[in-house]
Amino acid sequence: MKHVFLDEYSDLRSPVHQLDPRAKLVGFAALIVICVSTPPDRYAAFAAYLGLELALVLVSRLPWRHVLKRMLVVLPFILVVAAFLPFFGEGGGSYNLGPLTLSAHGLLVLWNVAAKSTISVLAVILLSSTTPFPELLKGMEKLKVPVLLTTILSFMYRYVFVLMDELQRMRRARDSRGWSGKWFWQSKVIGHMIAALFLRSYERGERVYAAMLARGYGGGTHTIYLYEFGAMEVGFMVMLVLFPLAARLIS
Amino acid sequence: MHHRPAVEIKNLRYAYPDGTVALRGVDLLIEEGESVGIVGPNGAGKSTLLLHLNGILAGEGEVRIFGLPVEKKNLREIRRRVGLVFQDPDDQLFSPTVFDDVAFGPINMGLSREEVVVAVSRALEEVGIGGMEKRSAYHLSYGQKKRAAIATVLSMNPDLLVLDEPSSNLDPRARNEFSELLQSMRITKILVTHDLPFVFENCERVLVMSGGRIVADGDSFEVLSNETLLAEHGLELPYGFYPSPRGKASEARNREMES
After folding, report:
1. How far, in Å, CA of A139 to CA of A150, rounded?
2. CB of A77 less than 8 A from some CB of B
3. 20 to 30 A Cα–Cα from A108, which one of A171, A239, B3, B121?
4. Do residue B96 and residue A213 have CB atoms under 8 angstroms apart?
5. How many CB pairs below 8 Å do chains A and B form together?
6. What is the mean pLDDT of each successive set of 10 residues along chain B, which is 259 residues long?
7. Which CATH number applies to B7-66+159-258?
8. Is A234 found in the same domain as A192?
9. Quick one: A134 and A159 in the same domain?
10. What is the ipTM of this complex?
11. Surface of B (106-165) touching A: CB under 8 A
């Protein structure tokens, strides 16, 4: 079965794709921190952050459609909450919009949330679309993220679709036997399915562990890192840290 | 140096924690270079036996691999020498990419970065899926997954290859190609399967397991043409398949065409 992968387009070739994942992890994290900590009225700084990100989208040759689609998945949730802020905010004068009153302070908060979430989400999209997830995990490991955590994430990446396929097959088997889901007593079936899925995953876990032991697993890292931290990486990080920082201080 | 068989098992007994007795006294000797098939009905103890070959399970009795007793201090060496491939490639391939999976064993063995890279590409070439390092196992075909699963142990340069149900779920073409791949590998092999023709193609020697014991052990042709023995232990050859004493199923077909 076909699933949309987390790291779609991460196998393109571009200067951004080829960078050491560590540089991208640190660079984009820095950009997000700088952006989030910028006072909302530094409009020029936000423009600079966005400009930098759009330039990176261009350089990395990501399809715009893909980037927009990903933004549309995340942003509405944030914006729906933020859209009500101008109506409840107080202070800083107010504007009349027909029967409604908008507070200037509330508007600024809306702008703040919208701008910062857009820039942050775009940073995450850039990171995940230019770095294959396995490489990202290796980068995290190199940056001293606990191995336990990266191992869990790596199993999740490997098995989430295997599990989804399993669920799909169970659903088909269920529906083939006339399940309609209309009646209250049929809800019990869903409980049974969850239990079955849990047991299957648990058993798979045991088999996978046996397969790991069989190949000499003794805990610890089990990947090797093929990237070198070179001039490109340094340049990239300088760009992603110093440029936004300068933009923020000057504006 | 005195003679050391690849596998030497004496009176091996094992019961699972829930009390199910799986092995009731298994004695087995496999010489280096042999290719042995283990057949038997479900629940006969075949997979349990396999898990003893590299110390994942430990029962009562004695198991020696190339002379080394299977015990804690030898596990590292034994797990390098015994390449155990599990039935479901989705269990065997647990890493995010094929490269990481094939590199898993060599890294655990403590090879250097360069050695690991070489071992991985060599193992993938050997099973015929070279260049698929960066793929996710999820995106491979079932036949490719089976091959990748074998590569994950070949990269450790094992001396004994142990395969659980190697031909299951393969379509006829993938099955034939897989059989050819196995035949091309000059290494001691143990195959556990229900697929009797597959055993016949790949092994000179067959063991029949039933009820936690080895009930028959001998030349493939003799064991597999003994219908009474097979029927007694819930096995039978597929309809239309007749083993020939010359060994290979393809030769049997050729002979029929000549006559």
Report:
1. 10
2. no
3. A239
4. no
5. 90
6. 82 93 94 94 91 92 93 91 93 92 91 92 93 88 93 94 92 91 92 91 93 93 91 88 65 49
7. 3.40.50.300
8. no
9. no
10. 0.81
11. 107-109, 113, 116-117, 134, 136-138, 152-153, 156
